[in-house]
Design brief:
Elements: H1 5-19, E1 23-28, H2 34-48, E2 53-57, H3 81-89, E3 92-96, E4 116-120, E5 133-136, H4 143-153, H5 160-173, H6 184-195, H7 200-208, H8 213-224, E6 227-229, E7 234-239, H9 241-247, H10 255-262, E8 268-275, E9 279-286, H11 292-298, E10 302-303, E11 307-313, H12 316-334
Parallel strand pairs: 1-2, 1-3, 3-4, 4-5, 7-8
Antiparallel strand pairs: 6-7, 8-9, 9-11, 10-11
Helix pairs in contact: 1-4, 2-4, 2-5, 4-5, 5-6, 8-10, 11-12
The chain binds manganese (II) ion (MN).
């Protein structure tokens, strides 16, 4: 695979550093997604098969949906005494799919600059994690793409299980190759991973199906509450605390936002979920020119231009009003 010149030097240096490590601790961002956990699993497969001890750190609970990617015997560690000790004692500390300290949860206090490597494709806004080597490129489709560049530089072939985990990162972050980051290079990488042994059909069930009834109930509750502002092209659903509490952790079900953004005439889709303690979790998607990362940052959150999130103080009604106002002004600015 062609490697953009500016990435080559860093990818080589990171590959050398990882090859020289006796133990590697890997963290992704809180509420880790398919790209974060796919990349972490790929790193664990690739260096684990060389005999390196690789420990995975889960600042928030590891999503069961991604368990099939983990190497045998690797169990992501909570931010308790055991997890923190695994991080502190590792010869190399790796951060994947995040570059802001606040995204690391309780683990953030235990990274040491000289031992830290960051690989990420988010545009850094709020201040970077201090690292010895940082491969950060928002032009990459996924962190999995940057990690693949690194793995190729190790000189060891990328095995089928590492390839599968990288493919999961690529598929989930590109919306199954439908979003604007589905670049020619992302497709070339997908082809190379399939050649390395990925069975794409076998991934459909674990990634997209296997929904539990409660997950479809989440969708049902959201669709019942769906509202649409025709003038601005905003579609949203706000879930009150009692619904949100009942559905619990299942609220992470991504398919809900997909449906909201698929309504005809939608430029911005918003899912708001009231949490305990007077906070509302807000997830934003843009289908056009509006930059929802800027909206998320107004509320202390972040993300990509077309996919971002934040936690807003207040009840769900107040948060909805604030976020809608911010989205309307972002849409006014994005319209020429
Ligand atoms: Mn990502």
């Amino acid at each position: 695979m062609d490697l953009p010149a500016h990435r080559l030097d860093l990818a080589k240096r990171i590959a050398e550093r990882l090859k020289g490590s006796t133990s590697i601790a890997v963290s992704t961002h809180v509420n880790g997604d398919g790209d974060g956990w796919g990349s972490a699993s790929a790193l664990a497969h690739h260096f684990g098969s060389r005999g390196t001890e690789v420990r995975l750190l889960a600042a928030t609970p590891f999503p069961e949906r991604y368990r099939f990617m983990l190497p045998e015997g690797v169990e992501p560690l909570d931010p308790d005494a055991v997890g923190v000790e695994a991080l502190r004692s590792a010869s190399t500390q790796v951060v994947l799919d995040a570059s802001e300290p606040s995204r690391l949860g309780e683990f953030r206090l235990h990274f040491e600059r000289q031992r830290t490597i960051v690989i990420d494709h988010h545009a850094v806004a709020a201040g970077e994690i201090e690292a010895d080597l940082s491969l950060i490129d928002p032009a990459a489709a996924a962190t999995a793409e940057l990690l693949y560049d690194v793995l190729l530089q190790t000189g060891d072939p990328v095995g089928p299980l590492a390839a599968q985990a990288l493919y999961v990162g690529l598929v989930t972050d590109t919306g199954s190759f439908r979003y604007s980051n589905s670049t020619p290079r992302a497709h070339r990488m997908a082809a190379a991973l399939i050649e390395a042994g990925v069975n794409t059909e076998a991934l459909y069930q674990p990634l997209f199906a296997n929904l539990r009834p409660a997950e479809l109930s989440t969708l049902q509750a959201a669709l019942e509450r769906m509202q649409h502002d025709e003038e601005y092209g905003i579609t949203w659903a706000a879930l009150e605390l009692d619904v949100s509490r009942e559905l619990g952790a299942l609220m992470e079900y991504e398919g809900v936002l997909e449906h909201l953004r698929n309504l005809a005439g939608t430029e911005v889709a918003i899912l708001l979920r009231e949490l305990e303690g007077g906070e509302v979790k807000v997830s934003l998607r843009s289908t056009g020119a509006a930059d929802v990362a800027t909206v998320a940052r107004l509320f202390g959150g972040g993300g990509h231009t077309k996919a971002a999130g934040a936690v807003v103080s207040g009840n769900v009604g107040e948060a909805t009003a604030l976020v809608l106002a911010a989205c309307r002004s972002a849409l006014e600015q994005s319209t020429p």
